[in-house]
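Throughout this review, each integer encodes one residue's backbone shape. One record appears below.

===
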Amino acid sequence: MKKRIRLAAALTSLSLLAGSLPAANAYTIYEYSEGLAQAEESGRWGFAGGGGEIVIPIQYRSVASFSLGTAAVDLDGRLGVIRPDGEYLIQPEYDTLMPAGYGLYMAQRGDEWGVVSILPYTDANGQTTNEVYPILYASVELGVSGGLDALILTSKGGGRTVVPIFQLPSILGSLGVEGSRFPLTRGRIPSFTDVDPRDWFALWVDIAYNTGIMTGTGGNAFEPGREVTVAEAIQMAANMDSRHKGDNFHTTAHVSSPWYTDAVTYCLASGIITAGQFDDYGRRITRRELAQVFSATELARSLPQRNSPVRVMAAVRDVSAIDPAAEAIFGLYTKGILTGVDEKLSFRPEAAVTRAEAAALAARLARPEQRVDLF
């Protein structure tokens, strides 16, 4: 079977693309998506950042545009999936990769098919794997069964396994795939008029919106630069905590007045905030306070460390070890949620938090594949 990437048209002719830019060097930059643009030189492809600089090396035969923080790539005839820093989520070892939604891909290797995930899990034998359905089927396809969209896996003996698409998140959860409470829904991409595809925060807005953590502010706007209030932060924390626990707070209509009353009640009952912690829910929240609120959710508490706590404490120099929020702040750096506001990893605890910055934190809390190794 012909090797291919069946994703968004990544290799559209330059003559058909409005706004394609000749770069100062030999490569050509194409349209942006989630802060990154396809870049081509002599038939090889990579990705450029917002300033036109190459951030993912030009080495691939073809690439797909980034969508929800992932892009399929063809490395010398073998297909894989990368994240925005170029790290592989799915190693380039497949002849065919086709998206199935929820971070899953139908994958072909040789004459065998299966379904692989961008996130690994530990199987029944204690082995780490990305294969949700092993690479041993005669075919895998998207189809319709009983009026429902479904994955249809056909064995070499002719038997069929039919998996309704809507069941995939619960299947991932049963396997212990981290982040399954915040599934990525294929095709659910916002088109806010005030979020440009070149913006650094476009990725985080897409993920926060896709997972249902954040919405627009009306009039097809997101207002990425608007400062987040205490009430908004508490509402986000309550929704994320509820989703992680699998209870019904985030699915229940709340009509109390003021609008954030039920979220405050939830967070008080869950120990996310304490009585008297905030004197005014309508004021802006500081970065220190947001770290305290988000880190107190069960979701944040459950995350594994991925950065050295000792190195974090040494690197983040504008947060003192005796700061009452130090444990919360350092913990979010350690878990790959916070990355700082500059190359020095500065935190700026007293600064306000924009909606764009809140989207970045929420997206990393929800989606493990976007968490950051700092060192």
In short: The radius of gyration is 22 Å. The CA atoms of residues 79 and 232 lie 41 Å apart. The chain has nine helices and 17 strands.
